[in-house]
Amino acid sequence: MDLLRFATAGSVDDGKSTLIGRLLYDSKSVFQDQLESVERTSADRGDDYTNLALLTDGLRAEREQGITIDVAYRYFSTPVRSFIVADTPGHVQYTRNMVTGASTADLALVLVDARKGVIEQTRRHASLSALLRVPHLVLAVNKMDLVGWDQAVFDGIVADFTQFASDLSLDLPRVTAIPLSALHGGNVVERAAETPWYTGPTLLEHLEQVDVVRDEAHARSARFPVQYVIRPMSTERPDYRGYAGTLSAGRLRPGDAVVVLPSGRTTTVAGIDTFDGELDEALPGQAVTVRLADEVDVSRGDLLAAADDAPTPVSTFAATVCWMTDAPLVPGRRLLVKHTTRTVKAIVTEVQDRLDVTTLAHEPVPSLQLNDIGRVTVRSASPLVLDPYVVDRRTGAFILIDEASGATVGAGMVAG
Q1: CATH code, 345
Q2: Do residue 94 and residue 237 come from a single domain?
Q3: Digits of tens for pLDDT over the chain (416 positions)?
Q4: What domain range includes position 15?
C-alpha cells in the first residue's frame, strides 16, 4: 500500500489538532478506549462536545493551554493509502518543530481560520514549506461554518494567498484549496451539503488521490549511504561481505559501476541482497545489502554513487540552517555534522545572514538565535559527500549536534 507523509501547519487555534482528530475519527482509526478517554476528558473540561483535538494533543501543557507544543505523529490508513501525520505547532517560538515535522513530508497542510484569513503565520508556514521543498500544499480554509459557508470569503482567502505567493515569487508546490469545518466534519471525509458551489475533492479524497511524485528520485543518479558492514559470520559463506543501507536515489543493478566516496575507489555491483533473496534492481527507499565485485575499503558513513555522475567530496560548504537551541550559533562554534550515515566534527566559520520567512528578505546578523533560519558556512574535519538540497532532500540535508550533550541543535540544507 502506498504511503503519504503530511504535516499540518497554521496559527494557534486554527484547528490543526481538531482536523487530525476528525480524520482519525471519521476514518475509523480510533480505538474505543481512546474515544471513551477523550469523551471523559472533554466532559471534565466542560466541553459540550467531544473534543477530537485531544486525540493528538497528548502533553498535559497542551491540553491545559489548548495549544500544540511538540510535534505529534499519528498513523492511520484507508483502503487506498496509509498515512503518517505530523501535527506541528503554530506558535512562532516553535518554528523549529514545524521544520522538523515538514522536513520529510510529501504534503504540507496549511490551515487558515476563515474568520481571520491569511495572516503572518500563514505566510510563514507557506514560506517554510517552499524552503523545505515539500512537493504538495493544501490550503485548508477551516471554520467555514462560522462564516456561514460563504463562497466569497473562501474565494477572497484563496486570492490573498495566491497574491502573497506571486508578490514574493515564492516557489510554492502544487496548491489545492479546500473549504471545510474540522469541528463538524464538513468536506473533511464527507462532503458538506452547505457547499454546493465547491466541486473539488474532500480533504481525505485529495490525500488519497494526490500524486506522490517519487519519479524524480528514480531518475537521479544512484546514491547509497552505507549504514552497516556485514562481515563473514558463518562457515556456509565465509567469503560473504556486504554493505547494508537504504538507497536514497537512483537505481542499482548488478554490474553497475560505482565509486566509493570519499575515497574515490571504483568497482562494480556484484549483487543486491534482501531478507527475501536477491534483487535484479534496487529502487529508492529500499533497504538492501550491496555486494561489490572488488575488495575495496568501505565503512559506515561512506557513499556508493554512480561512477559516471558522482558528487565531489568537500570540506567547506554553504548551507541554510534552522537553529534549534537557546544558545546562539556564532562563528567559531564547534559542532558535529551528521549527514546521512556519516558523522564528522565541524566548525561554523561564518554566519552570513538571517532569513525573514515572512518576506523572504535576508538580514545580516552576527549570530543565529533560537528558531532563526539563516545562511552559514561550515568547515568539516573530514570530507562530506553532499548534493544540493534542491536536487535531493536526503543527501542535501544534515543535522548539527552539540558535542558535549549530544543534543540536536540545528537542521541544515546544503546550498545549491
Answers
A1: 2.40.30.10
A2: no
A3: 588 999 888 877 777 778 887 787 777 666 565 556 655 665 566 665 555 555 565 544 444 444 444 567 888 888 889 999 888 776 666 677 778 778 888 899 999 999 999 988 888 888 888 888 888 899 999 999 999 999 999 999 999 998 887 776 666 657 899 999 988 889 998 999 999 999 999 999 999 998 875 555 556 889 999 999 988 665 667 778 899 999 988 899 999 999 999 999 999 999 999 988 899 999 888 899 999 999 899 999 999 999 998 899 999 999 999 998 899 999 999 999 999 999 999 999 999 999 887 777 899 999 999 888 999 999 999 999 999 998 888 899 999 999 999 999 999 999 97
A4: 2-213
Distance CA 58, CA 376 (A): 36
Number of domains, the chain: 3
Which CATH number goes with the domain that contains 32?
A: 3.40.50.300
Residues 283, 327 share a domain = no
Give yes or no: residues 208 and 262 share one domain.
no
Q: Which of 306, 324, 354 finishes a domain?
A: 306
